[in-house]
Design a protein that fits this description.
This protein has 403 residues and is an alpha/beta fold. β9 and β10 form a beta hairpin. α11 packs across α13. The two termini are 14 Å apart. 45% of the residues are buried. It binds adenosine monophosphate.
Amino acid sequence: MFILVVNAGSSSLKYQLFEMTKEEVLAKGLCERIGIDGKITHTNLQTGEKFSKEVAMPTHNEATRAMIDALLDAQYGVIKDMSDISAIGHRVVQGGPWITKPTLVTDEAIEDLKKCVVLAPLHTPPHLQGIEGCKAVMPNTPMVLVIDTSFHATIPEYASTFPIDINVSRKHHIKRYGAHGTSHRYVAQECAKWLDKPVEETKIVTCHLGNGSSISAVKGGKVVDTSMGFTPLDGIIMGSRCGAIDPAVVPYVMEKENIPVDKIGDWMNKKCGLLGVSGVSSDLRDVHAAIAEGNKDAKLAFDILVYEIKKFVGAYAAAMNGVDAVVFTAGIGENDHEVRFHSLKDMEYLGIKVDAEKNLSVRSLPAPCDISADGSAVRVFVIPTNEELVIARDTKEVLDSLK
Ligand code: AMP
């Protein structure tokens, strides 16, 4: 069975074609500059052959057409006929209170997704365009919405409700939705396989640390808390996002710096975080380079990052009445040994001890990599995330349930 996974952004569309018996990616690609001019880059992973060409993409419909043409191409393609694709799984960033599990695309599901525009105004319209594009080219292929927020739907009300006027939260659907749910789910499931316990008995802190970062407490396979909130701005310091700050800082900065209400979101999302503190870059590699040159603000940005990770690990150990494992994933989590080491330093009281040498050699060890020291009561893993595989699996499951 072939499942196509699509991740549609405002001017881009990423795709991967899975063969589900072996859960193998046969081909992948990226359509970019949609609405501007258009370019597709496609790789046949069976042969390693790759091409890149310019194709006019005024809308997502043409991008979808280009993707299908690439998948069917005599030289670079991997399927013979469009009907070989059993279903398409769409990555959806925000399902709000309306879509909380993988859902077959129907007129009703589309109406629910349209309601999410108010909660995720940047992501939802491109998702809708991506779905529309696939529908135009493959009208008879079932499609499934796989929602990033759905893994967090199990967070208890006391952890997902912000302490503001309850009538205001209810009226505007304000609550902790979290983000990166598909990634947290994947690494928590992988981690559970490596802990010699039934998943119902596991307590795992998953740290998805990338340009955007979130940390989750996963107890018995279910999320009980997560660091991102109503939007992906909450939680720890990120590349250029501030994370959680005293809310009173926001109107104060608006007044003192003359920032109007329609620009303050940009300030919090694009001018803060590692970039704002270091004054150097939102990319942690650049921050490290600046630290090596003696930049004190860069060091401060790094210190904030590892301190905030440590605080969440401690808080989530408290929330779950213990912790069996801490997992690191995504760009920083998978690659940055200094972040892993320093964020879990001096946590022996919780039973967390990282093996410095294993931590340094993560890339040369087979994944998932256990970097805990001998005798560490809590296991520490580095697990590369695979959101596309989760989307493919969920899509297959919905499809199978229709039979
Ligand atoms: P992501 O959003 O998951 O792509 O992660 C982006 C972040 O990962 C950036 O802050 C990068 O600096 C960081 N990153 C990516 N590769 C490396 C690496 N090899 N070493 C350290 N940090 C890295």
